[in-house]
Amino acid sequence: MHLLRSSLKNFNKSKNILIVLDGVGGIPNKYKTELEFAKTPNLNKLIKKSETGCHIPIKEGITPGSGSAHLALFGYDPLDFNIGRGVLEALGLDIDIGSKDLAIRGNFASVEYKNKKLIVTDRRAGRIITEENNRIVKKLSQNIKIIDKYKIFFKSGLEHRFVCKISSPNKISKDECNIQDTDPQIVGQSPLDPINLNKKSLQTSIIIKKLLDKIKNVLKQEKNANFALLRGFSSYPTIPTFDNLYGIKSASVTTYPMYKGIGRLVGMEPLPLNTNSLQGQITAIKANINNYDFFYLHIKKTDSYGEDGNFKEKVKEIEKFDKLLPQLINLNFNVVAITGDHSTPSRMKSHSWHPVPVLIRSDNSYNGLSKRFTESECLKGSLGIFEAKHLLTYIFAHAGNLDKFGA
Amino acid sequence: MHLLRSSLKNFNKSKNILIVLDGVGGIPNKYKTELEFAKTPNLNKLIKKSETGCHIPIKEGITPGSGSAHLALFGYDPLDFNIGRGVLEALGLDIDIGSKDLAIRGNFASVEYKNKKLIVTDRRAGRIITEENNRIVKKLSQNIKIIDKYKIFFKSGLEHRFVCKISSPNKISKDECNIQDTDPQIVGQSPLDPINLNKKSLQTSIIIKKLLDKIKNVLKQEKNANFALLRGFSSYPTIPTFDNLYGIKSASVTTYPMYKGIGRLVGMEPLPLNTNSLQGQITAIKANINNYDFFYLHIKKTDSYGEDGNFKEKVKEIEKFDKLLPQLINLNFNVVAITGDHSTPSRMKSHSWHPVPVLIRSDNSYNGLSKRFTESECLKGSLGIFEAKHLLTYIFAHAGNLDKFGA
Hints:
The structure is a homodimer.
Chain A: H1 2-7, E1 16-21, H2 34-37, H3 41-47, E2 50-56, H4 66-73, H5 85-92, E3 101-114, E4 117-122, H6 130-143, E5 146-147, E6 150-156, E7 161-167, H7 202-218, E8 227-235, H8 242-246, E9 250-253, H9 257-265, E10 269-270, H10 278-288, E11 294-299, H11 301-307, H12 311-329, E12 335-339, E13 356-361, H13 375-378, E14 385-387, H14 391-398
Parallel strand pairs in A: 1-11, 1-12, 2-14, 9-10, 9-11
Antiparallel strand pairs in A: 2-13, 3-4, 3-7, 3-8, 5-6, 6-7, 12-13
């Protein structure tokens, strides 16, 4: 998909913005979805000039993670390109990852010996507070710096979460990171061994085994966080950037590091924010409007409240966005596209596979088919239901940035 | 796609017609599209018995050229089959192209020497009139007939345009025509060399170089058109014909040579017309109704007026078609399919990616879902939005000409 699009590129001076309301799609809670319930006068106005439809993030019935869903929105086939969970977490903590690095998600956990067997008693070490996490990570960092020729780096996340980066002397490929998670997923069980799931990952598994022994030793005096469970072993993915593919300058405008990281993977420069709020994000876009061709604006909280099952607060987040929307519209983008990366129905308290409404406002929009930016109204639009990986083609088409295909 | 369809073929004595209103799809001009604005009592009547949907010519967001869009309507994957621009122009001028031929689009141009460098001063030679073009082409034809063992043939297009056909002693493949365009695209630059972009095209590039030297020599006394810029070097594409794939006899009924040419590529015999009008086309179909299994009727002007941004005249062309439609219906085809090859919204004055309405009338139609043959009404149909390459499968299915797939 990205190669066909790239082969037709013909960029004039257009300014485009992709606004992602994370997890905005829903299913009716009794009678209405969050988008239907929300009062959105500005979206209602915008949609009159917009082409509409719904996207499915990956494939019919497939619920996406944030990384895959975003890669699709950025125009890559999410089945061909995959970001490992460890790398995604590392990006989320603003850790620099390169082609020689292996990234791992860690949980601090409580363990004890029962009948001479090491047993997990709390997979989150009693959800220790972040300050406590910082102290422990400092301890680990001071005591574990190198294993054989592999450099070890730790960074705290929130509560019990952390990331470990292992820097190899050489490039490390996806095939060398095929390691079993050590989290047994339930308490009362032993931590699993970091078994290599293919031959090429043998050396990696040896290093991880040594790492776990060292972690256990350094943390043995800790009351709660006296061990770590490791998951999502992954290497840096190779993804052609927006600049390489289309020759355009793109910026990400995000409040959560992870989304900044995903943007960076595809070549988006993160804009600095004065305040970590939607207003701060909009102000950053205004300040940089002449410096970039493409902006990616990410709004997180719609997803968070969906995950919490909090219908009312998700509605409020949508309404907050709607209130500030005119500031974005007034920047006179050639194309404004608004969608979510996936649905997070508060009724389900989780990501889902349900189609996500899409709006594209440009001078070339087939407008008038949807009355509101809601799931049911966008399903009436001329874009129909389409795979998310095509959205970027539509955006570039609307901007007049693609040549005709064929003679 | 065409191979699956071919593998299931089971043709009885059905008569099918595919009617292509070129560029008929639109987007609302204020409130209505051209199809919505047009008064179409006969289409309104026909759609009551029709299955409906919308096709996208190539892929989501991709705007097609005429050649690719037609290949898709004829059931080929347009990403696998591509007609070179030179061949398309040649077909448009009614030039016979075969497997030993290389076709080139040419522009007469004005050049002059500045500091001993040849510089393009007008890429269109001041848009010379067609009569002037005819005179120059005659001069070229008299002076350049053969280069090494390659026969050279010129034919005038409109204004500054012409086509050059080079007939090789042997078959010439796509890989032997990978030659850089010599048009620098802007004035003040030198014409580019016809560099071979791969090894296999070396011999071709040598002939083209000699050809350009001869053209320069023959035209050196001309005031305006004293050189030529060449583009779209292409060989005859290899496409399995309708006859080969399905064992049916097919006819094209077109008023523009290019569409006759595209039809010929897939094995359609062009019907001779007494008058170059839609009535003339219909009369030709009536006269040949017993001689063919499949008719392709092409109506050009809907696209032309779309390209001109002339909403009103595009509407009139649709209404003209509607008026004559009953004559076609009365021929009792088993299947009547009506669509466009792509959209040409008069609001955009160009081809676009927007979905194109489709109607299929047969005894097996899922009818009753669309009230009119318009974009918005056809979006409600049971065919949904589908890639154009599938249309022919639907037509054959409706005609009862395909076996079940699998046991």
